[in-house]
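I am going through a labmate's work and have reached the protein record below. What it holds is a sequence and that sequence's fold in token form. Please read both lines and tell me whether the tokens look consistent with the sequence. Do not assume that whoever made the record got everything right. Thanks in advance; the entry in question is below.
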Amino acid sequence: MMSAPAGQEAAEHSGLHKFVSAVFYAGSSFLITVVNKTVLTSFRFPSYMCLGIGQMITTLVVLYAAKKRKTVQFQDFDKSVLLKMFPLPLLYVGNHITGLASTKKLSLPMFTVLRKFTILMTMILEIYILRKTFPKRLVYSVVAIIFGAMVAASSDLAFDVESYTFILLNDAFTAASGVYTKKKLGIEGLGKYGVLFYNSLIIVIPTLLASAFTGDLHKAVTFEDWVKATFICCFLMSCFMGFVLMYSIVLCSHYNSALTTTVVGAIKNVAVAFIGIFVGGDYLFSWTNFLGLSICMSGGLVYSYLTFNNETSGKNTEGTQELKIHIAEDLKEKYSAS
């Protein structure tokens, strides 16, 4: 199987689509963080799982209605869908469970640095699963992101085996989910809307049963703030933003690589940390942490520049080659005529 260079996607999608989809994903990720924090922290809603179920159901309702109105198209459900989607739903569930478990005992600095290993794992999986190759400059920028995160967290090295295990598993599930999402987008009959719809459809029933079995569903149903209009509004906003976030991830993966989607998420997190220095008052400033964040952000910006600037370079090179071909053909016809 031939390897696909990382810059090959430049020929498939315009630079504007690649850039806008990345910004859309970063913005959606930031907004849902704010909305979820309001629901889970300000209102003290007791169930992460039931909030996720609400987001899945919203995704199913929106896409089913759009399919009925012929706004979007994807294949009807049959047995082949399960084979086409495998193992994406399992990776999504694993990502969700390990993500929640990894936040229990881990400090924020160490959580930040260990989550950055998702980027490295995504790059490795793209090389082995999608057969891609990456320019050395992109590899160096990824190394800079991880190194910066390690510097930022170097002042907080409290070791907890359980939390470290869960977060590294979460990194692996996140990376595999991103890479397989990219792979499934190319399967006939699915596309980005089919991947979104059937991933939610396959997951929602087992998740609902799990929440009922653990008592999570009972806590959510008996939550006292269901009578408050403000809470209902925030809950519905979170459900809708869950759909928007999932769509933005698939869209970013469609126009870019899985690695680019992962790096965009990392840049967003670092940007939020920078904002926390000046807004909110809960950031404990230290020069080591600030230096690490700066290195991490610089690596992310360099990666972004190399990725999106490569689009322009690729088009210029392609245009030059086409010009050379046309000139050669004209000369050939001229000499043949003479």
About this structure: The beta strands are 4-5, 132-133. The mean pLDDT is 79. DSSP finds 13 helices and two strands in the chain.
